[in-house]
């Protein structure tokens, strides 16, 4: 009997030590988006493909998808940045603001405007910049029951919650494979290493 008790005590001590072992902490930040609710901040680790210092734009790549990023002066000087460098982009997609059909022959892409029209984000961390973004993407589907639109754009396959009833009606008229321009508010922060 004492042998069984010592085995149980040893297992209990081992379990207690394992519970105290240092594990990496995962930082999760949440922001409230108007019309959507709580949204986690997405962290993209991208590779710099090319840099246009005069235009303050950088082409980045992640998992075979490339897109252009306009880098506001708030994120620092681009002089130290080199092709092949790794950059972290933290971004939050806001609610869909507008949708329209793309011009014939359009390919997935991104167009930026410096500021969003109305406040979309609550409890936004410091140093985030808010702007309007128009994604040219291939429409996949709209689930009216959950109000979620699925599309394939410059960041790959994505989905987005839709709050506006007029936009929901527009989405119901689209067919899979249609190229569309999705306009939404975006908050982002770029960490240049």
From TrEMBL:
Keywords for this protein: Signal
Cleavable signal peptide: 1-21
The protein's name: Uncharacterized protein
């Amino acid at each position: 009997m004492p042998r069984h008790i010592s085995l149980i005590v040893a297992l209990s001590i081992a379990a207690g030590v394992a519970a105290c072992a240092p594990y990496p902490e995962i930082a999760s930040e949440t922001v409230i988006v108007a019309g959507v609710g709580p949204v986690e901040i997405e962290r993209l680790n991208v590779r710099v493909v090319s840099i246009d210092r005069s235009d303050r734009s950088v082409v980045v790549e992640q998992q075979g998808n490339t897109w252009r990023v306009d880098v506001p002066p708030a994120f620092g000087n681009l002089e130290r940045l080199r092709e092949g460098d790794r950059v972290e982009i933290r971004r939050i997609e806001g609610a869909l603001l507008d949708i329209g059909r793309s011009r014939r022959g359009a390919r997935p892409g991104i167009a930026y405007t410096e500021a969003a029209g109305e406040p979309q984000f609550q409890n936004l961390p410091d140093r985030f910049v808010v702007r309007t973004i128009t994604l040219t993407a291939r429409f996949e589907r709209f689930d009216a029951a959950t109000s979620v639109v699925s599309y394939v754009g410059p960041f790959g396959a994505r989905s987005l919650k839709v709050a506006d009833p007029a936009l929901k009606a527009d989405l119901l008229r689209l067919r899979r494979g249609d190229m569309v321009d999705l306009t939404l508010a975006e908050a982002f922060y770029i960490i240049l290493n």
